[in-house]
Amino acid sequence: AVENLCSYKVSATLYKQLRQVCEDHVKAQILQFREYPFPVHRYDSLDSLLFLKKINKCWQDHCRQMIMIRSIFLFLDRTYVLQNSMLPSIWDMGLELFRNHVISDKQVQNKTIDGILLLIERERSGEAVDRSLLRSLLSMLSDLQQVYKESFEQRFLEETNCLYAAEGQRLMQEREVPEYLHHVNKRLEEEGDRVITYLDHSTQKPLIACVEKQLLGEHLTAILQKGLDNLLDENRISDLTQTYQLFSRVKGGQQILLQHWSEYIKNFGTTIVVNPEKDKDMVQELLDFKDKVDHIIEVCFQKNEKFINLMKESFETFINKRPNKPAELIAKYVDSKLRAGNKEATDEELERILDKIMIIFRFIHGKDVFEAFYKKDLAKRLLVGKSASVDAEKSMLSKLKHECGAAFTSKLEGMFKDMELSKDVMVQFKQYMQNQSDPGNIDLTVNILTMGYWPTYTPMEVHLNSEMIKLQEVFKTFYLGKHSGRKLQWQTTLGHAVLKAEFKEGKKEFQVSLFQTLVLLMFNEGDEFSFEEIKMATGIEDSELRRTLQSLACGKARVLIKNPKGKDVEDGDKFIFNGDFKHKLFRIKINQIQMKETVEEQVSTTERVFQDRQYQIDAAIVRIMKMRKTLGHNLLVSELYNQLKFPVKPGDLKKRIESLIDRDYMERDKDNPNQYHYVA
């Protein structure tokens, strides 16, 4: 019938009449809602729910009927309506009528939206609600264009905002940080789920932004002040990961997290570095702290570059709060790891420890302090043959060279060279001795140390016996015969010897220092000597001699008996050869009583570093002035800061400049005292 009517050009009338019939029907629908008792209070929830169900049924019916009508009038819809661009399709006409006559009714619209918001609110507070009803009603509002955006979404977001603003304030007071962040996460998931289940997709962005702002954005600083230190102290990886992820969602969140992260590292690090009581554990604590921080960056902060860089800056800041001491302790720590008898590590582990040490070393400004102490310890390891492994030593050197350049390690490398050259010299010396008419029965091994490479040792004049002096002379003749123009100075403090001894129990060998040797050899001449006699005969300096006797008469292997007994060596003590000496080993090493590295020694090493620095500053000033000829004070100072590898105070630079002016390397400008000229 529809097709026939259309063929007879009655389409226009047909459409008009159809619209009229539909309109009458839709208008009639409104009556049922008019009669509906309107509650005074919007929270009369049961009534509100019934109303929503009713409006939903009305909408569902309308849709079903319009689909039927559209199918019947399909020919009209496809011909006449399509050709007239001004006319809405039959389906759209139905929507328009429903919007104009039902939903645009102020009372109906308010009551519908109030009801929807009430349901959502109940769901947010944990009740179960009819989600399919919500989905149906909200898609109705979306289908009716603009109603969703204008009437529903704006009010929905306002209510969400108020709800979460209050919730954020309340829970920040009540909960600990990890629980609070857990809650924020849960809320974000719930709201995301709401968008998927029944809200229009366009609401997602503003809704999530609103939750983030009220629960996170408003409380960023408070959250970190209240809980970050605690999470970091206790190394709570999963909570820190959550903090990072949530803070990354909010504008400015990462920035604030970065600041607090940096503060934490500086504060914690400072407690490790500045407290002298903690010195013996300082380096180990620094390494552990660095490991912990690295782990957090890797696992929780997704290896974020900003966090890595700031961590490095923070380390550098706190480690240099106490000048010189950390550098010295790092050098000693390396010494303890490279010394033989350090059984705790395999080669791989040792390599790993050295790599970690280098990272801490990198943060230190006064690297020359490290070098001075490192050199002192390296000398001990090499001369006493106490190095755990040459490979590890070389590996550490190459790390230092890579980090600080060849100039930094040239002396250290020189020490290794000396040890190797000494071996070659000894091979030649052995051959030389065999060709002597009287080769003697003592083996002499000499290490030839180049003066500038090694730490300075105070030479001590002692009385060697004639065989030793003779051997020294033979070696001197041999060495200077090969290298004319060199000067040999014997360092008695570093010498050691192997002695053969006979006791009632049988023969033994002793590995002893040169000083111990001189004392023990006296007992070939007699069985008992007093402290004063020994001192006279050997010429060993007083405190050095007391320590030597202590090692021989009060230590584990007591070759001498002290009378009276006691731990310390006093004037007037007598020493007697112990003929009954027993020991399970054949060759026994009698350790020198180690003088604890005295404060003076530490101070003198540090002083030497400062003396070196003065020369380096002078050299740098002269280099710069020679190149520039004329330069202002400030430019000179900034150029010096670029060139010098250690921290200097402007006052020190001024003193060096004054000293160079006094020594005629440069002069002040006649008219401008802040200008300097190079004096050729």
- Kindly estimate the percentage of residues that lie in beta strands according to DSSP: 5-15%
Q: How many domains, in number, for the residues?
A: 5
Query: What is the top-level CATH class of the largest domain?
Result: Mainly Alpha
Distance between the termini: 118 Å
- Categorize the overall geometry: elongated
CATH fold call of the largest domain: 5 helical Cullin repeat like
> Which CATH architecture of the largest domain is right?
Up-down Bundle
Number of strands: 9
- The computed structural class is mainly alpha
Radius of gyration over all CA atoms, rounded: 46 Å
Q: Which sheet architecture does the biggest sheet show?
A: 3 strands, mixed
Keywords: Cell cycle, Cytoplasm, DNA damage, DNA repair, Isopeptide bond, Nucleus, Phosphoprotein, Ubl conjugation, Ubl conjugation pathway
Family: Belongs to the cullin family.
GO molecular function: ubiquitin protein ligase binding
Organism: Asarcornis scutulata
